[in-house]
Design goal:
With 196 residues, the chain is mainly alpha-helical. It contains 6 helices and no strands. The termini are close together.
């Protein structure tokens, strides 16, 4: 495994370990506040807010943050490989010359067209899945989870929040696991082909 792949894979997998460590703390804090709630009817406003925070908001806020971080690692991996190809080829076409649907698509195109990496084609099933992750990430970052597209990942991981099916909340750690597995699989295939 090359160093770039190793570092980025490790970073992406770290989001699962951070989730697990945080989950233990959240459960413990919830139990503490629940016990306090059972002992007295007069909870302070702060205790009530903390209880609500740990029982209702903490998990999805954490998963959203970890997912956005993990996706950034994936994007940086793609940028890193595109830059490596740019530096190691004699092509007059530079990464900045490539146009696409955002930076990630430009990196993929450069890797595919200039680096001649077949696995970076846009018609592969795994790339389409990565694009669904990207749509979910953009929804979280730019629209507070509001989404108007029907995506397989949303259905698979039950991400809808509320009956309108226009907003998502990621409360399922399996979504993070799916992202980690998919992104690392994609990065590994790219790395294997680049390093032949």
């Amino acid at each position: 495994m090359d160093l770039t792949l190793s570092v980025y894979s490790s970073n992406i997998l770290s989001i699962l370990s951070i989730y697990k460590d945080s989950e233990n703390m959240r459960i413990e804090k919830s139990k503490e506040l629940e016990a306090k709630f059972k002992k007295t009817e007069n909870l302070s406003k702060q205790d009530f807010e903390n209880y609500s925070h740990y029982r209702t908001h903490f998990e999805w806020l954490l998963i959203h943050s970890l997912f956005v971080t993990g996706f950034s690692y994936f994007e940086n991996f793609m940028r890193s490989y595109a830059k490596q190809i740019e530096q190691n080829t004699d092509s007059k076409i530079r990464l900045n010359d490539i146009k696409g649907n955002g930076s990630l698509d430009c990196y993929r195109k450069y890797i595919n067209l200039i680096g001649e990496i077949e696995f970076a084609k846009s018609d592969l099933k795994i790339w389409k899945k990565i694009l669904e992750f990207k749509t979910i990430r953009n929804s979280i970052i730019h629209h507070y989870g509001t989404i108007d597209k029907k995506l397989d990942l949303i259905e698979k991981h039950n991400l809808y929040y509320g009956p309108s099916k226009k907003m998502i909340r990621i409360k399922n750690v399996d979504f993070l696991k799916d992202f980690c597995e998919s992104s690392i699989e994609y990065m590994t295939e790219i790395s294997n082909e680049v390093n032949k």
